[in-house]
Amino acid sequence: MTSPAFHDMDGLIWYDGALVEWRDANLHVLTHGLHYASSVFEGERVYGGNIFKLREHTERLFNSAEILGFEIPYTVEEIDAASYQACEANGIVDGYVRPVAWRGSETMGVSAQDAKIHVAIAVWPWPSYFSPEARDKGISLKTSIWRRPPPDTAPVHAKAAGLYMICTMSKHEAEAAGCDDALMLDWKGRVAEGTGANIFVMFGDGKIITPPPECFLNGITRQTVMELAAKRGIEVIERHMEPEELADAEEIFVTGTAAEVTPVGRIDDMSFKVGAITKTLRADYEALVGRPDQETEGAVSAA
After folding, report:
1. Helix intervals (H) in 69-190
2. What is the pTM of this model?
3. Which is the catalytic residue, given 53, 142, 159, 171?
4. Could you tell me which of 38, 113, 138, 216 has the fewest CB atoms within 10 Å of its CB?
């Protein structure tokens, strides 16, 4: 079944302080955010009517805007309230929340000091980022030719729209090769993350290794899973990894708001098992968020 286009759905979107009809939530083609990527966003999950770690996500949205040099014209509390308002207006109990802030069309050019800052919050049903089969057997990754930029060349700690260009290109290349996602390396060729999820690796000594977030987001789900591991007495070590080291890995999983805790079954020509540590942390995470036993049928999804 083909999912509906995202511009052609029923519902309401919170847009600059008011709920508007979904199909009317539009912007001008000369919007600065479209041409110059002056846009930041978040991705949040709703479980049983609760937006998981909403405050942390909203604060990161504001921090991302500050990094890009603009101020969101609402308070953190107002955006939190608007997020729940959008969920209630659309009857979303289990789903996805997408807040986005961007510079408008008042000026056109690299400099946009006078551009109005707009904010919108859309919500929709969300089953799973990867198929249930892929989540059970482990997703497949293809190493991308594109690398995460050095932290002194881009606003790498902002969840900014422009940083996802190479993610889209990498994921498209991976899907064309029959894989679920891409493995991104950092600017020095070391293991970094997926296109929208952080990565964790186990080498058989009972410890978990994850790259330090020097050139990518320190994901909220990443931090949550590290806390869950600590409660289990599992040591998590942040260190750089060369891609060649992955050949010796026993378990690998990725984490993210959309991906949750998803095992990796293959990277390029390397295969991995879905092991005990991955299963344990996945179960702990699902218990923490109160993930529904049965996923929503007929839901639409987005990257």
Report:
1. 76-90, 132-137, 165-176
2. 0.92
3. 159
4. 113
